[in-house]
């Protein structure tokens, strides 16, 4: 495994840890300005929206200036805007800083994944993606717990600590990520000769069934894992199952634990068993897990669904990324950017669509549509070439 993969995994852990620390403080800090609930929601969504709309530009910057420079710059942008947001004296300033932070986050995310895929040989891309995602998951699990405690001390404190952590991560990235520009996979045994070619054009990638399968699978991950699960599941637990919020936390914990355990093997499966069967397995397991929520509400079925989708997500987090690396192994900034945008699009549209379907019909209908979105990934996975 290239050294860069381990460095990127550590940076991903720091980023996810800090984001989890800040997340509980954002609505409380916004409330201190005396704004309403809608404005609080805007403070949360501004970061995600600007991250989505700026991702493609981040991909263009990667192709022009290189992954290392864009990655470090993105981390510095998020660090500075986060630290200043914690010192903001008015809500408009706070909102503008959060939006600018989303731009920096897009730069970091696209650059880090592009670098990961560039330095990883074809035989290790699945494992590299799983290692990288593992850093995000561990940080995401630890962050919110620490954030809740820090927010009780001061709503500003999490912002300042996150800024310091990001600056440290940026310094680590500049020092340790030293793969020479223009030498993809330098020093990596088994690197394929086609890594020396330039980036694949986006138009060409979009004509590939492999790339389309990766996009559709990533859309499902964003829709369910980053969208519907966070917005709809807590309400489903309290209103349909008649349980307390602790049971929603238990469901999230079951999913995160299953995903973390699955990542120990999912990358190896993608590299040894093959991309197609691994993606088919992940999409089929994810479809079946979401379909369980369409059934009449039962607590143990809910917990089984969360654990099952967490296990599926371990495959859906590593295999599609490996497929993108197969399509564009060189510095494919825009190809990677559109891949990342597919998950962000699911995370933005999923909660809105599922919420409207719940209000208009029922939770079961909303979960049924979400199941169909994940099932679309299964259809495209089955259409992949067998080799």
TrEMBL record:
Boundaries of every Major facilitator superfamily (MFS) profile domain copy: 4-387
Transmembrane segments: 7-29, 35-57, 69-89, 95-117, 129-153, 159-177, 210-232, 244-264, 276-295, 301-323, 335-357, 363-384
One GO CC term, this protein: plasma membrane
Source superkingdom: Bacteria
CDD domains: MFS_MdtG_SLC18_like (cd17325)
Subcellular location: Cell membrane
Membrane topology category: Multi-pass membrane protein
Matching SUPFAM superfamilies: MFS general substrate transporter
UniProt main location, coarse: membrane
GO MF annotations in UniProt: transmembrane transporter activity
InterPro entries documented for this protein: MFS, MFS_dom, MFS_trans_sf, MFS_Vesicular_Transporter, Tet-R_TetA/multi-R_MdtG-like
Pfam families noted in UniProt: MFS_1
Swiss-Prot/TrEMBL keywords: Membrane, Transmembrane, Transmembrane helix, Transport
Protein name: Predicted arabinose efflux permease, MFS family
């Amino acid at each position: 495994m290239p050294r860069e993969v381990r460095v990127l995994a550590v940076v991903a852990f720091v980023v996810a840890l800090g984001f989890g620390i800040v997340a509980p403080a954002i609505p409380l800090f916004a409330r201190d300005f005396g704004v309403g609930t809608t404005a609080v929601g805007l403070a949360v969504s501004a970061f995600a929206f600007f991250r989505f709309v700026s991702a493609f530009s981040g991909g263009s910057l990667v192709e022009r200036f290189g992954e290392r420079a864009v990655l470090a710059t993105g981390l510095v942008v998020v660090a500075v805007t986060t630290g200043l947001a914690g010192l903001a004296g008015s809500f408009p300033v706070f909102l503008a800083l959060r939006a600018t932070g989303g731009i920096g986050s897009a730069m970091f995310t696209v650059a880090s994944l592009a670098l990961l895929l560039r330095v990883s040989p074809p035989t290790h891309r699945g494992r590299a993606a799983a290692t990288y995602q593992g850093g995000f998951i561990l940080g995401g699990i630890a962050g919110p717990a620490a954030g809740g405690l820090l927010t009780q001390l001061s709503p500003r404190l999490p912002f300042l600590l996150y800024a310091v952590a990001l600056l440290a991560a940026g310094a680590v990235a500049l020092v340790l990520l030293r793969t020479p520009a223009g030498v993809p996979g330098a020093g990596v045994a088994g690197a394929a000769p086609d890594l020396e070619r330039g980036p694949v054009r986006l138009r060409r990638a979009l004509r590939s069934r492999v790339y389309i399968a990766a996009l559709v699978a990533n859309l499902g991950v964003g829709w369910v894992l980053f969208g519907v699960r966070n917005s709809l599941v807590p309400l489903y637990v309290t209103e349909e199952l008649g349980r307390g919020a602790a049971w929603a936390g238990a469901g999230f914990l079951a999913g995160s634990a299953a995903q973390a355990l699955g990542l120990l093997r999912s990358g190896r499966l993608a590299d040894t068993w093959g991309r197609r069967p691994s993606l088919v397995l992940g999409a089929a397991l994810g479809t079946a897990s979401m379909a369980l929520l369409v059934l009449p509400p039962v607590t143990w079925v809910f917990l089984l669904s969360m654990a099952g989708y967490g296990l599926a997500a371990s495959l859906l987090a590593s295999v599609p990324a490996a497929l993108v690396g197969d399509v564009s192994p060189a510095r494919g900034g825009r190809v990677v950017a559109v891949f990342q945008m597919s998950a962000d699009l699911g995370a933005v549209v999923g909660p809105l669509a599922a919420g409207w379907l719940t209000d208009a019909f029922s939770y079961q209908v909303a979960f049924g549509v979400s199941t169909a979105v994940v099932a679309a990934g299964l259809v495209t996975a089955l259409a992949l070439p067998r080799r």
